[in-house]
Design a protein that fits this description.
There is one protein chain. By secondary structure, the chain is α/β, with parallel strands linked by helices. It has five domains: about 5-125, 3-Layer(aba) Sandwich (Rossmann fold), CATH 3.40.50; about 135-240; about 245-390, Rossmann fold, CATH 3.40.50; about 425-555, Alpha-Beta Plaits, CATH 3.30.70.270; about 565-690, Rossmann fold. About 50% of the residues lie in helices and about 15% in strands. The model is unreliable at about 130-135, about 235-260 and about 385-395 (pLDDT under 50).
């Protein structure tokens, strides 16, 4: 065992750094604030262990890791990643020479054990303040701190309400930032990890200079979750005791019967083990019982396998390179999509400490290697029948990854109460895939599931954080939009339907599959007072507009005699795809309604006529366009007097006086030369919109 251990650390919370220094024998911990300092220290070649975090830029982590490895072949590198970003971060860091990944919030005992093993050190027992005898003292301390803690939340509630009222003063904003940050530290000390994360997220929102009324809705929802997360006793002592004792394990002698193959037939299982011989043997053995096994030897492929397989159970090895089975189990338990899945460990480590580790990570059961096939089948059957029943119904659809009807209703009802209290508009939309039955009949169930999965991934990315997106059943999705009238919601749904129509999925035989959607929108109190009544209204108008054709959006209470004119804030007419995408993102992120056109002919057809497709307050018009140039577009807009109701701003690299005057004479209100500053353009757009109101 090494006499002294040198560790270089960056980006970890202070309490974890302190614990590493106290609990690893002989550890000399050097903490750094930036990659340059840490890189210079790592290049000296005397460090045993380098610990990095995703709070650092990826490029900085790569720099430090490479400097450390160039200086010494013996140095080991650990990396901490947020669970919420685990999949994306692992792929980005796959080429970095990392020896072990940890997912935060970390299990400190598991982390210390692994760090000591990596640097050939020794973990010291917990100090008395971390031991069993402290549990009662921690609970007593929480009883004293609970009242002041919830008073802090009351202050945050006041700040959220002030934000929603657009009356948040700088002093109250600063107080909310400080109180939420203090709250995050306080509840973490009592083991409420989820509450600490939520309080930290609230603190970040209040510290932002760009906080808006819209953020008030998200903060109000987070405060509800925070109160729920702090219910009950402090979690750290309870979890430690449970982990030590472990749950009662089912024994073959307890059942009085052999395994029932019919209970597991057709079940999908993901098996993760770095030994190919183990996964091959399991695949063969379980395959004889018609259990469908997806075997993975590389833990980096774990998330892809979950998304593609939608398993009924997960089997994990305990010790694997770079990512341990316990870390994967913790990620599963903290992901709402997979948290209800039974997790069974198959491990050669059956000592008391290893058993404690797997149950502390959230496992349901374990089987030692070498295993008896009959016992393994019995354990699988027990997990699939007993564990799921105890956990109750799953509130996430495994195909779309979205909340199911009951959970969606619960989430929307919370916002309806807030909308009623604040007298804010709230709209509910029902979106349904057109001709879905024919799709399933033509291409099969796997292809139709693939289509639903793609839509389930698209929808959450297309709406704001305070909007609720759920799967209602079949090919129907339900969406709740806070602060949106049904007219505004219909414009957003039209954009979504167009995005769905642009997506391509592949059938099992390789054919490209495209679908279209229709939607109906209803507004709270105008069209109904409950989620059920609003959904029914939305579905009624959806079926009405579908009679006029597919890929349409209907609005409850509006006459459907002909095509609707969409009202948007800005229409962008330009063939520069990158520029249009950048402008559209900048505007939609500020809640502006946007329509885009890549050529002059299409724009004129959409903006003019007795019943135009789009009516825009501002038109950003490029000059050098295909099919019909910008000045000719402007002439046609002026001919129908559209320049009287819409402000036209020319975007062009032509800066000659003649070109500018020609545009102004044809009715343009302004002229901006390319390249231009997006903030300057956004300021001008906002000024025009403000004047038009």
């Amino acid at each position: 065992m090494a006499e002294g251990v040198r560790l270089l650390v960056a980006g970890l919370p202070a309490e974890i750094v302190r614990e590493i220094g106290l609990r690893i024998r002989g550890a000399a911990v050097s903490e750094f604030e930036n990659a340059q300092q840490m890189g210079r220290a790592a290049s000296q070649g005397d460090a045993n262990l380098v610990i990095l975090s995703d709070t650092l830029p990826t490029a900085d982590s790569i720099y430090v890791a490479r400097r450390a490895r160039d200086a010494s072949d013996d140095v080991r590198i650990a990396y901490c990643i947020s669970m919420a970003q685990a999949e994306a971060a692992l792929q980005a860091l796959k080429e970095i020479p990392v020896d072990r990944f940890f997912f935060s919030p970390v299990d400190i005992e598991e982390m210390l054990r692994e760090l000591a093993r990596m640097c050939k050190g020794e973990v010291l027992p917990p100090q008395v303040t971390h031991g069993d005898n402290i549990a009662a003292a921690v609970t007593e301390a929480w009883d004293r701190a609970r009242g002041p803690t919830f008073k802090k939340i009351d202050i945050l509630d006041d700040a959220a309400i002030a934000l929603l009222d657009n009356s948040l003063s700088p002093d109250l904003k600063k107080t909310a930032e400080v109180e939420s940050r203090s709250l995050a530290d306080l509840v973490m000390r009592f083991g409420f990890q989820r509450g600490s994360v939520i309080a930290g997220e609230i603190s970040e929102k209040f510290s932002s200079d760009s906080i808006t009324q819209v953020d008030g809705v998200a903060i109000s929802e987070q405060l509800l979750l925070l109160r729920t997360a702090l219910e009950g006793l402090p979690q750290a002592p309870v979890e430690a005791n449970q982990a030590r004792d472990g749950p009662a394990l089912p024994s073959p002698t307890d059942t009085g019967a052999g395994p029932d193959d019919s209970a597991v037939e057709g079940v999908k299982i993901v098996v993760v083990d770095d030994d190919p011989q183990i996964t091959k043997a399991l695949t063969t053995m379980l395959g004889r019982r018609n259990i469908k096994v997806t075997a993975i030897n590389d833990p980096f492929q774990f998330w892809r396998a979950l998304d593609e397989t939608k398993p009924g159970l997960i089997m994990l090895d305990l010790e694997m390179p770079k990512i341990s089975g316990t870390e994967l189990c913790r990620v599963v338990r903290n992901d709402r999509r997979w948290s209800a899945l039974p997790v069974l460990f198959l491990t050669g480590h059956t000592d008391q400490d290893s058993v404690r580790r797997v149950f502390a990570a959230g496992a349901d059961d374990y089987v030692g290697k070498p295993f008896v096939p009959a016992e393994l089948i019995m354990r699988i059957e027990s997990r699939l029948t007993g564990v799921k029943a105890r956990r109750g119904p799953v509130d996430t659809d495994p195909v779309t990854g979205l909340p199911t009807g009951g959970r969606t209703t619960e989430l929307i009802e919370r916002f309806l109460r807030l909308a009623r209290r604040k007298s804010d508009p709230y709209s509910i939309a029902a979106l349904e895939v057109d001709a879905f039955t024919s799709l399933a009949e033509s291409y099969g169930r796997s292809t139709s599931d693939r289509v639903l999965r793609a839509i389930g991934e698209l929808l959450p990315k297309s709406f704001r954080g305070e909007d609720v997106v759920g799967w209602w059943g079949g090919a129907e999705f339900l969406i709740g939009m806070y602060g949106s009238s049904k007219e505004h919601a219909a414009i957003k749904l039209t954009q979504i339907c167009n995005k769905v129509a642009e997506q391509t999925s592949l059938a099992d035989d390789g054919r490209a599959v495209r679908v279209q959607c229709s939607a109906g929108v209803a507004q709270y109190q105008t069209d109904g007072d409950t989620v059920g009544a609003l959904r029914q209204k939305a579905m009624e108008v959806l079926h009405q507009v579908r009679k006029m054709g597919v890929n349409r959006v209907g609005i409850a209470g509006l006459q459907l005699a002909g095509p609707m004119t969409r009202r948007v804030d800005v229409a962008i007419v330009d063939d520069d795809v990158a520029l249009v995408s950048m402008l559209q993102h900048a505007m939609e992120s500020r809640n502006l309604r946007v329509a885009t056109y890549a050529d002059g002919e299409t724009a004129v057809a959409a903006l003019t006529g007795s019943s135009p497709e789009v009516q825009a307050t501002v038109i950003l018009l490029g000059v050098d366009l295909p099919a019909l140039n910008g000045l000719d577009v402007l002439r046609r807009l002026k001919a129908v007097e559209l320049t009287r109701t819409s402000s036209v701003v020319m975007l062009t690299s032509r800066t000659g006086e003649r070109d500018v005057l020609a545009a102004l004479e044809l009715g343009a209100t302004d002229h901006i030369a390319k390249p231009f500053s997006v903030p300057v353009l956004m300021h001008k757009v906002r000024m025009v919109l403000r004047q038009s109101r």
